[in-house]
């Protein structure tokens, strides 16, 4: 197995904790040879963790992609609105690219990136990690076996989790649609992708409703303050308390995303000075905290999707109804049950993998590396190629337009005059 080299463009949470961690865990497969990151502290951490010299540390994507190719792979894990230009440049230089989702908040950029991958004959894989999990792979396999017949309808729920909602979409980096992406695209393009993959037909029409219902100034409890650290009278009772989520988080599951100084003093300083100490009712957020989407696919198959920030856990549940049977699944419990009509229920055996997104994070990188090796020998485009991702992005764009227009039905082809069918033409 030839070790592949990579540059990381954006060394934040995903760049460091997913791709950087994979390189440290499997050095025989994957080596990071350069990092582009504007934050000096993150660059320093990358240098230490991957043994990089100063001439392999860059403060911008323009610098690391300025001249010739210096690695096999470019991992683009910048913020949503900073994907387009470095991706096109990396493809033009001859890199195979692993791109964080969503591809872009703009339909024309999504399609242009997919076309560039074809033009330069390079891999452009999007991090739709759910396809790489044992859970969703087994569901896809069960559907393909014909045991439930033809899919009639799917119900999919994404339970964001109240603490994840508060961290990422109220206080955090993805709280304003105009700076990143709408919630349905940023968070739930995974789910649009899964529905597209399972049904395996073109989505035709979408309608959607949703709003920012709760995390608003008028809902702030009496006695609350601008920061949870400002002597808030209700902080101890508030489920969204920053002290509860970060200071009392002994595992550092969430505090590691707000500071690199994982000590009581370091976390306290982050809450006193940074955005994550703010009251959830006094932030500058505007993305929705709940949304529903209904979809019609070719052949009459329908799907409904619910995203909610008001759940006790972070989980996904699915119900797939076919002409001969039904599948019900609970991803976080690794539980899949098959109900063939007129027969006994079957517990579908499922391998369990460790790691983020139910093993999908490692699965994504592992399969991408395999594709790069195959591609260099004339292989295919991979499970989550840009071409495959275009439809799910267009579904999310249609859902957001429908939501903003009061739930009116929006056709996929109206989002852009070049639909998924024309991407490969």
Q: How would you sum up this structure, described in words?
A:
InterPro entries: Gfo/Idh/MocA-like_OxRdtase_C, Gfo/Idh/MocA-like_OxRdtase_N, Gfo/Idh/MocA_Oxidoreductases, NAD(P)-bd_dom_sf. By secondary structure, this protein is an alpha/beta fold. It has 3 domains: 4-129, 3-Layer(aba) Sandwich (Rossmann fold); 133-215 and 286-355 and 386-423, Dihydrodipicolinate Reductase, domain 2, CATH 3.30.360.10; 222-277, no CATH class. Helices cover 34% and strands 20% of the residues. The protein has a 9-stranded mixed beta sheet. Strands 3-2-1-4-5-6 form a 6-stranded parallel beta sheet, sandwiched between helices.
Give a quick summary of the entry:
By secondary structure, the chain is α/β, with parallel strands linked by helices. 34% of the residues lie in helices and 20% in strands.
Q: In order across it, which strands form the biggest sheet?
A: 14-13-12-11-7-10-9-8-15
| Largest sheet, strands/sense/barrel | 9 strands, mixed
Number of domains: 3
For the record, the CATH class of the largest domain is Alpha Beta
- How many extended strands? 15
* Helix-strand category: alpha/beta
CATH-scheme architecture of the largest domain: 2-Layer Sandwich
Quote the CATH topology of the largest domain: Dihydrodipicolinate Reductase, domain 2
Compute the average pLDDT. Answer: 92
**Using only CA atoms, what is the Rg?**
22 Å
CATH superfamily of the largest domain: Dihydrodipicolinate Reductase, domain 2
Measured as a percent range, the helix fraction is 25-40%
Low-confidence stretches: 417-425
Question: Beta-sheet strand percentage?
Answer: 15-25%
User: Ends: how far apart?
Assistant: 35 Å
């Amino acid at each position: 197995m030839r070790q592949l080299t990579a540059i990381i463009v954006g060394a934040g949470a995903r760049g460091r904790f997913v791709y950087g961690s994979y390189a440290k865990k499997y050095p025989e497969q994957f080596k990071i040879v350069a990092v582009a990151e504007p934050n000096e502290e993150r660059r320093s951490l990358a240098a230490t963790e991957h043994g990089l010299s100063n001439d392999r540390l860059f403060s911008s994507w323009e610098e690391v992609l300025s001249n010739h190719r210096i690695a096999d792979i470019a991992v683009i894990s910048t913020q949503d609105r900073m994907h387009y230009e470095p991706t096109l440049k990396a493809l033009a230089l001859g890199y195979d690219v692993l791109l964080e989702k969503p591809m872009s908040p703009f339909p024309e950029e999504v399609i242009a990136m997919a076309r560039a991958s074809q033009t330069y004959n390079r891999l452009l894989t999007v991090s739709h990690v759910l396809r790489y999990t044992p859970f969703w792979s087994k569901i896809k396999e069960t559907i393909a076996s014909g045991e439930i017949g033809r899919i009639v309808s799917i119900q999919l729920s994404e339970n964001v989790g109240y603490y994840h909602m508060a961290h990422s979409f109220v206080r955090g980096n993805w709280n304003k649609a105009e700076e990143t992406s709408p919630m349905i695209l940023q968070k739930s393009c995974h789910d649009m992708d899964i529905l597209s993959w399972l049904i395996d037909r073109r989505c035709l029409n979408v309608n959607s409703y949703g709003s920012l219902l709760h995390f608003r100034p008028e809902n702030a409890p009496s006695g609350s303050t601008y920061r949870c650290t400002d002597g808030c009278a209700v902080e101890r009772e508030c489920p969204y308390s920053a002290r509860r989520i970060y200071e009392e988080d002994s595992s550092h599951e969430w505090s590691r995303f707000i500071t690199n100084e994982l000590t009581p003093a370091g976390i306290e300083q982050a809450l006193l000075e940074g955005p994550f100490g703010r009251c959830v009712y006094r932030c500058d957020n505007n993305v929705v905290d709940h949304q529903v989407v209904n979809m019609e696919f070719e052949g009459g198959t329908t799907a409904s999707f619910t995203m909610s920030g008001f759940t006790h856990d972070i989980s996904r549940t699915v119900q797939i109804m076919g002409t001969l049977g039904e599948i019900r699944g609970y991803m976080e419990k690794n539980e899949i049950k098959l109900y063939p009509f007129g027969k006994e229920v079957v517990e579908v055996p499922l391998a369990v993998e460790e790691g983020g997104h139910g093993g999908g994070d490692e699965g994504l990188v592992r399969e991408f590396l395999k594709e790069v090796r195959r591609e260099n020998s004339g292989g295919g485009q991979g499970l989550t190629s840009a071409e495959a991702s275009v439809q799910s992005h267009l579904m999310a764009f249609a859902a957001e337009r429908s939501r903003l227009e009061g739930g009116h039905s929006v056709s996929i082809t109206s989002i852009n005059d070049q639909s998924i069918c024309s991407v490969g033409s």
